[in-house]
Structure formats: C-alpha cells, structure tokens
C-alpha cells in the first residue's frame, strides 16, 4: 500500500463510510466537560446529519479504520476483489483526528467502522483501542458509535460496549438465502448470536446501574443494525417481517435501511440498477408505523401489493387505510388514541393535541386542518363536529384523488 498522508487517508476512508446508513446519535446519556475535566459533550448543538430525539443536531466524524477487507461480499465496494484505492488509519491516528476535529468545533462524536483486516479479532481490537484511548487516555465525553464484528471474540465486543454509546451489528441482508448468495463468508446465525449476546450485556449493564451507581454504563444508546434493500430478491414484506423480528428478539433501538447502490466491476449476481430511493423511504415509514403508531407487522405487510412490495406513490398508512375502509371514518371527538393514529395524514403529535384539547371543545374540520399538512388527505377518513364524509370514504377513485400529482419537470428551470 502506497504511503498516504492523513488528508488523503481521510478523503478515502470518509468516502468509503458513506454507504453505512446507521449513523445516529440518539438515546445516550448526557455528559459534558463543564466541570473543567475531560473533553467533549454529548448534548451540545452540532452542525450536520445526526439527530437526537429532542431535535439537536450532533455532528459525527464518520470514517472507516480501513477499507481493506479479507471478505469478498458481492454488494460491497470495499470487498477483497474490488479495484478501489485502499487506505488504513492506525488507532492512534483516529484518536488524534477525533480530538483535533473536536477542538476545532467540527464534530461532537465519532462513528467508526472498518473492513476486516488480518482477522475479525484483530480488527475488533483496533476499534476497541480507539474508543478506549479516547475515553481513558483523553477523558473524551463526546458520542462514540462503534460497528462491531459478529464473529469477533465476545469479550472484545463487550469491551466495545463499555466504551461506546452505541454499538451496531449489521445483518446486511433481510433473508438468509440472500446472505448466503451475496456474502457467503458471513453467517446469519452468527450475526444473530452476536446481537443476542449484546442484548444480554446491555440488560446486565442496566441492571447493574440500577443497583450500583458506580457501575459503568454499557452501550447506553443501545444497539442498531442495517439492511441493504434491493440487492437481492427480498420483498418489502420480507424486510418488514425481518425488522419486526429483530426488534422483538434483540431489543434494537433502530433498524436502518440502505438502498443498494451499483458498484464498479460488480458481480453478475447483482442487479444492474439501484432500487428507487422512494422504496427506502417507504420502508422507513413502515418502520415508524410499527414503532410509534401501534401497527402490527402483519398490518404493515397488508399494505403491500400481491407481490409483497409497498406502493411507491402513496405512504403505507394511506395504503392500509384504502384497503381497510371498513375502519373509517373515525370520529375525532370520540375515538381512542389507537384509532386516531390510523388516520392517514395525522401524526403522533397531532393525535396527542386532539386528545388533550377535545376535553374542552369539540373539534371542527378547520381545527383538524391546523394540525396537518394536507387536510384533503384526512377528510375522507374522519368525522368532526361539522363534517361527515358521507360517500367520500367509499369512492372507487379515492386513491387517485389522494395520490400526489405527478409533475412534468421543466428543462430550463434553475
């Protein structure tokens, strides 16, 4: 490997990290250095792409330790047989970069992943050493997210949880046949076993923290995972079912979806084109329905067409409502929270405001309109003090009426 300076390495390894979507900084414990000790904070304002639950934007240095890899996963641009420029940081270089960027107010945390070099254990040791050095040698109190390696020694993975706010183990593909075909060196049972071990360690850490205040925090922001969408034959129904299983079995904070992106010198088993980005967006909406709107996985899957794919022109909640019109219209002045959350166009905040406010007044259509972006989307599915949709809910052309209108792009618009 040719000798590269730090700037060149950073350009290569930051670009290589862009394919990892699971870069978030939510749910961790609050830390700062206002006591004059240590460095960093996990609760200040940042400048880019990672958001905490309260809306704060936290910027992360997102890089790979190396883009060299001994594995040859077909979908990965950094696979062993790929003809890409390689680079590698040492653990010390990543530590220095993180501290230097923090001191310049560029970042507030680190997201670190890596290709597999030498062996899984060796790579995991390097990742853990970065986090350990930041925490113990430099008292860094900012956010750290480590990508762990499923077949690494469990003790190394445990060490990662002691130093990182969040750990993630990628399942890569939603079905076991897809994983066998596109990443034959990886094992679905091994990946899920590592996730199960991490769940147990996180629960043990929380129990210890409740009993002893001095107990160290263990991955306080939990664990997450990522699935590649569109690289294999898995349908949206398959993906929704897999995500639900992962949430239930392993207590994940998030499942991230990443649309497959065609890569240079790709294997013949890969599709020639990437899936529509809207497909990735619909899967995130489906994920939201399961996590915050009370939809069961089977109900989200019912929103898909007979081929198992979610519609791209309308969101999955509207697709479900159009299929099960017998549940509508819903009286916003009488219905329970579960029913209100099923209404297309109403979000969780709008539903909470309706429930709080209707104790003091009866909602009219204008009142509901103030809580939603598009009252036209809501009208067919609700009853208010001054509105009843009569036959509108059952119209055969209701989907056409509610689907976003297609716009012809203009060639010479700026």
Automatic annotation (TrEMBL):
It comes from the Bacteria. Its cofactor is [4Fe-4S] cluster. Keywords: Iron, Iron-sulfur, Metal-binding, S-adenosyl-L-methionine. Residues 53-296 form the Radical SAM core domain. It holds the Pfam family Radical_SAM. CDD domains: Radical_SAM (cd01335). PANTHER family: ENDONUCLEASE/EXONUCLEASE/PHOSPHATASE FAMILY DOMAIN-CONTAINING PROTEIN 1 (PTHR21180), TYPE II SECRETION SYSTEM PROTEIN K (PTHR21180:SF9). This is DNA modification/repair radical SAM protein. It comes from Sphingomonas arvum. The lineage of its organism: Bacteria, Pseudomonadati, Pseudomonadota, Alphaproteobacteria, Sphingomonadales.
């Amino acid at each position: 490997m040719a000798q590269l300076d730090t700037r060149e390495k950073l350009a290569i390894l930051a670009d290589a990290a862009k394919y990892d979507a699971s870069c978030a900084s939510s749910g961790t414990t609050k830390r700062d250095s206002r006591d004059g000790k240590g460095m960093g904070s996990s609760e200040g304002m940042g400048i880019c792409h990672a958001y905490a639950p309260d809306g704060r934007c936290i910027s992360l240095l997102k890089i790979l330790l190396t883009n060299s890899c001994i594995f040859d996963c077909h979908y990965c641009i950094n696979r062993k047989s790929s003809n890409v420029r390689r680079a590698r940081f040492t653990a010390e270089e990543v530590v220095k970069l993180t501290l230097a960027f923090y001191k310049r107010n560029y970042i507030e945390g680190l997201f670190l992943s890596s290709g597999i070099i030498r062996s899984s254990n060796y790579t995991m040791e390097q990742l853990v050493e970065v986090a350990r050095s930041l925490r113990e040698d430099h008292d860094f109190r900012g956010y750290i997210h480590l990508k762990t390696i499923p077949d690494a020694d469990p003790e190394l993975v445990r060490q990662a949880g002691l130093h990182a706010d969040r750990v993630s183990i990628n399942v890569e593909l939603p079905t076991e046949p897809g994983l066998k075909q596109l990443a034959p060196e990886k094992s679905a049972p091994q990946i899920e076993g590592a996730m199960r071990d991490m769940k147990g360690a996180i629960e043990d850490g929380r129990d210890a923290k409740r009993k002893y205040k001095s107990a160290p925090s263990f991955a306080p922001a939990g664990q997450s995972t990522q699935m590649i969408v569109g690289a294999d034959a898995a349908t949206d129904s398959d993906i929704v079912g897999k995500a639900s299983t992962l949430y239930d079995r392993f207590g994940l904070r998030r499942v991230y979806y990443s649309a497959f992106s065609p890569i240079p010198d790709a294997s013949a088993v890969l599709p020639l084109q990437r899936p529509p980005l809207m497909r990735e967006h619909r899967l995130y909406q489906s994920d939201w329905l399961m996590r915050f709107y009370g939809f069961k996985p089977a109900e989200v899957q019912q929103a898909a067409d007979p081929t198992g794919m979610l519609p791209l022109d309308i969101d999955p909640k509207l697709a479900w409502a159009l299929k099960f019109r017998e549940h509508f219209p819903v009286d916003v002045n009488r219905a329970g929270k579960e029913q209100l959350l099923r209404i297309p166009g109403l979000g969780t905040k709008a539903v909470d405001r309706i429930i709080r406010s209707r104790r003091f007044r009866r909602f009219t259509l204008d009142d509901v309109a103030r809580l939603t972006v598009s009252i036209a989307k809501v009208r067919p599915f609700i009853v208010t003090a001054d509105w009843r949709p009569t036959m509108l809910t059952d119209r055969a052309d209701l989907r056409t009426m509610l689907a976003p209108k297609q716009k012809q792009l203009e060639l010479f618009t700026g």
